[in-house]
Design a protein that fits this description.
Layout lengths: L9 H5 L2 H14 L10 H21 L7 E7 L5 E6 L2 H18 L16 H13 L4 E6 L3 H4 L2 H11 L3 H12 L2 E3 L2 E3 L11 H19 L3 E5 L2 E6 L2 H17 L10 E4 L4 E2 L2 E5 L5 E5 L1 H14 L8 H18 L6 H22 L3 H10 L4 H9 L4 H5 L2 H6 L2 H7 L7
Parallel strand pairs: 1-4
Antiparallel strand pairs: 1-2, 3-7, 3-8, 4-5, 6-7, 9-10, 10-11
Helix pairs in contact: 2-4, 7-8, 9-10, 14-15
Length: 420
């Protein structure tokens, strides 16, 4: 008697109890907003208790139909809007179940220099690898940006690759249905013939499956590269080699019906380009180091301006608490950067923003004067600042304000420093 082929029974593995519970913990931990059915994670608990047996049966017989995703737009770091597709909680759960079964089999086959959305891989590793390539003498960069990659993935090409790896036809059909489920925008469901909406657990794995073909082709041609999702940089030793590598990338991506964004892509010396928010540079001792790209610093300042708005309506302690949550995450991401002077300047700029809030809160001339004198300023210096207190930004940088509100005041509040 022939033994059953486990690869043909992947659906059973996806919905077995242990895998389901693990998937639910992940969905619950990730949180996220509701899909088109307006069902929250809390609401889904009761719903699944009664409806899961029927959903499970549909999955086993291959008749389950996913719901359309809800369109959400979020701002991109470099301007414009990124479109996300938020599946329902139930569909997020099912996709997470599928991911947990497929990823352990697929991920080990992906190229080692692909770092996005993979277990035990990170953006920090990708930046470090880019630095290693530059240190080896590959100082010309082919910076490739794929135009609206997640919106333009060919369903036919992607499903052909899925078919080659998944023998359970029910699972193949279900993945295809997720791609075809459509996007609801302003109450209307638009059927998609291409694209894999960002926002669902399966999307990153499917994107890596497709883009791994780019990685393998670059490997065959002996090119050094680093890829994080649809961000890819190729490193070579000369400008001429870089120009040839760009043509190679156009050829490889063209076969997958992907398009290179010519405005954002370029051939350049490595110091002229950024990668994942970092910029590489050479010190006076000819050592390749990492710094925060100017675009990332501009984004940081924009966010801090929002958090320290003069009209935020919160006391200074609340502002500092909110700031800390953002600053800790930002610092952790950019911890590889070797630019203490820039971090020190940013710390000073943030404290100046907070001094400006104090000036805004001291609305009356008499209040401003009294507060400044109480903080150690002479009456003459306090008078000078209080008369001009409505020049908030100018006065916040004055020597008098630094005396009245020294760095130690903000340290005592627990304000996190970037230059640590």
């Amino acid at each position: 008697m022939n033994k059953p082929n486990p690869s043909e029974h992947l659906m059973e593995r996806c919905i077995e109890r242990e895998n389901m519970l693990r998937a639910w913990k992940r969905v619950k931990k990730n949180g996220g907003s509701a899909g088109i059915d307006a069902m929250s994670i809390e609401d889904a608990v009761g719903y699944l208790k009664t409806e899961w047996p029927q959903i499970r049966l549909k999955l086993l017989v291959g008749s389950y139909q996913p719901k359309a995703v809800r369109r959400v737009e979020i701002p991109k770091p470099d301007g414009g809007m990124r479109q996300l597709g938020i599946p329902t909680v139930v569909d997020r759960l099912i996709q997470q179940c599928i991911l947990q079964i497929l990823q352990p089999d697929w991920d080990p086959t992906f190229h080692k220099h692909s770092y996005g959305f993979r277990p035990m891989k990170s953006a920090h590793q990708a930046v470090a690898q880019a630095q290693a390539f530059v240190e080896s003498g590959r100082k010309w960069c082919v910076d490739v940006d794929l135009e609206k990659f997640f919106d333009r993935v060919s369903h036919d090409i992607l499903m052909d690759r899925v078919n080659k790896r998944v023998k359970d036809k029910r699972l193949v059909k279900l993945i295809h249905r997720y791609l075809k489920a459509g996007i609801m925008d302003q109450g209307v469901v638009m059927v998609q013939d291409e694209g894999t909406p960002q926002g669902g657990p399966l999307s990153p794995l499917l994107s890596n499956l497709l883009l791994d073909e780019v990685d393998q082709e670059l490997e065959k041609r002996g090119l050094a590269f680093v890829r994080y999702a649809d961000d890819c940089n190729v490193y070579v030793r000369s400008k001429r080699a870089a120009q040839k590598a760009m043509l190679t990338m156009e050829h490889i991506t063209g076969k997958l019906k992907l398009k290179i964004n010519r405005e954002k892509s370029a051939v350049a010396y490595f110091t002229k380009r950024k990668f994942l928010g970092y910029r590489l540079w050479i010190s006076t001792k000819s050592i390749v180091k990492q710094s925060v790209a100017p675009q990332a610093i501009a984004k940081l300042k924009s966010r801090i301006r929002e958090l320290t708005s003069r009209t935020c309506g919160r006391n200074i302690e609340q502002v500092v608490e909110t700031l800390n949550g953002y600053l800790v995450g930002w610092k952790n991401y950019f911890k590889l950067a070797n630019t203490p002077r820039i971090f020190e300047e940013l710390d000073g700029w943030i404290r100046r923003r907070l001094r400006m809030i104090y000036l805004k809160q001291w609305k009356r001339v008499s209040t401003c004067r009294r507060e400044l004198v109480a903080r150690g300023l002479s009456l003459k210096a306090a008078e000078s600042i209080s008369r001009l207190r409505r020049c908030y930004w100018r006065m916040s940088g004055s020597s008098g304000m630094k005396i009245a509100l020294p760095n130690s005041v903000f340290d005592a509040m627990g304000l996190k420093r970037l230059n640590v």
